[in-house]
User: What shape does this take?
Amino acid sequence: MTDLYDITRTVSPSLAVWPGDAHYSAGAALRISDGASVNLMTLTLSAHTGTHADAYYHYEADGSHPAAMPLDAYIGPARVVTVSKRDGALTVEDFPPGTLDGVKRLLIHSHVSDLPDDQWPDEFPYPSAALIEHLAAHGCRLIGLDSPSVDALDSRDLPGHHALFRAGMVNLETLNLRGVPDGNYELVALPLKLDLACGSPVRAILRPLKG
Assistant: This one.
């Protein structure tokens, strides 16, 4: 078994983004090939590019920016669980019996992980507010998805996002769980210390827990 799983989508100009959002680009301010002493790049990207953490400010007018989000929620024991539902809100009943017991950080593996980085999912599952409330009541700190949102693509009232905020939970979106067996891991997926932003790309990794 590998000692480390990188569950991050590669950030490149071809990476699929939320419809209408900014694509990633890297422009050269300085080039060694032009005689400069270093290569220096200027990056343009959305706060929600690829694998990322939402900040509460994304959906709450007075919510925290990434720099003030609780870092301890993004590090610690996590459980990967695969679901067969391809589209729509997930409930407790969509998970195999016992797989949610004692979970502190739930990473939901769906068919979306099988899509290439440049393909936007036409359909994807997301957690219902009831599922989030159930997880929170049992001590869960984080919910992570390979899907691009904890709500439906066309949602305006964002019940899943607001349920996370009420519960003091955090979320990760657009993970890549392809090839990761279901089971228990240590998760590390820290947002950047960004002020004023509504989210942050992360480098998300998993290490299997022994025993």
About this structure: The first helix runs from residue 129 to 137. The chain has one domain: 48-208. The domain at 48-208 is CATH 3.50.30.50 (Glucose Oxidase; domain 1). Residues 67 and 166 are 19 Å apart (CA to CA).
